[in-house]
């Protein structure tokens, strides 16, 4: 899966109706709902604020709404386009200002789908790498070799405290490297270092 780095708003006009598609980062369902509320408040003069969301490490949390458009003509096409992008932890909104001419069900499906495709064509993304979160204490006698080992495995320190037992560290590294770094820390310390995996 990919994560969103940046996206430009995309505007489409179909028979005088204006469609504004925007892609926003949302890593929880609650965050997506809050962003959707903000979009609706921002565009209070709009006819509809249709949305779709894909959330979770594997994109397993899905949601969409037609926001008053005929059932299946707006939210579902936007969600299908979003699912096909491989991007997760995002909310895609398509705001419509009605232009006075009805588009029919086929016209709505096409307009909302095209608006979603348009904003996705502007995105910059990054690959999402699963991370393992670890906590352990490096004895003072092993600080230098321990830190060298951690740098070798791209271990990012998130919290550090000096204690009487040594340097207490919490951090993360790509999950595919976790078992090996745990084994090497145990070897380095002859079993003195006990590593705890933190579940977030």
Number of strands: 12
- Count of all domains: 2
Strand order of the largest sheet: 2-3-7-4-5
Mean pLDDT: 93
Description:
This protein is of the alpha+beta class and 200 residues long. It has two domains: 2-127, Ribosomal Protein S5, domain 2 (2-Layer Sandwich); 131-198, Alpha-Beta Plaits (2-Layer Sandwich), CATH 3.30.70. It is 32% helix and 37% strand. It is built from five helices and twelve strands. It has helices at 29-42, 75-85, 104-120, 143-152, 178-189, and strands at residues 2-6, 10-14, 17-25, 48-55, 61-65, 87-88, 90-97, 124-127, 131-138, 156-163, 166-174, 196-198. The strands form three sheets. The chain has a five-stranded antiparallel β-sheet with strand order 2-3-7-4-5, sandwiched between helices. Strands 10-11-9-12 form a four-stranded antiparallel β-sheet. Strands 6-1-8 form a three-stranded mixed β-sheet. The protein is elongated, with a radius of gyration of 24 Å. The chain starts with a strand and ends with a strand.
């Amino acid at each position: 899966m990919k994560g969103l780095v940046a996206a430009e708003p995309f505007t489409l006009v179909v028979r005088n109706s204006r469609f504004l598609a925007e892609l926003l980062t949302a890593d929880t369902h609650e965050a997506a709902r809050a962003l959707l509320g903000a979009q609706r408040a921002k565009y209070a003069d709009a006819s509809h604020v249709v949305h779709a969301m894909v959330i979770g490490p594997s994109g397993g949390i899905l949601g969409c709404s037609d926001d008053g458009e005929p059932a299946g003509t707006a939210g579902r096409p936007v969600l299908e386009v979003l699912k096909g992008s491989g991007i997760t932890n995002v909310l895609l909104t398509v705001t419509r200002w009605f232009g006075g001419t009805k588009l029919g069900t086929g016209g709505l499906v096409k307009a909302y789908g095209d608006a979603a495709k348009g904003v996705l064509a502007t995105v910059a993304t990054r690959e999402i790498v699963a991370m393992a979160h670890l906590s352990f204490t490096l004895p003072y006698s092993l600080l230098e070799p321990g830190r060298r080992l951690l740098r070798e495995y791209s271990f990012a320190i998130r919290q550090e405290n000096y204690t009487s037992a040594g340097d207490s560290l919490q951090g993360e590294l790509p999950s595919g490297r976790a078992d090996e770094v745990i084994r090497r820390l145990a070897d380095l310390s002859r079993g003195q270092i006990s590593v705890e995996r933190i579940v977030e």
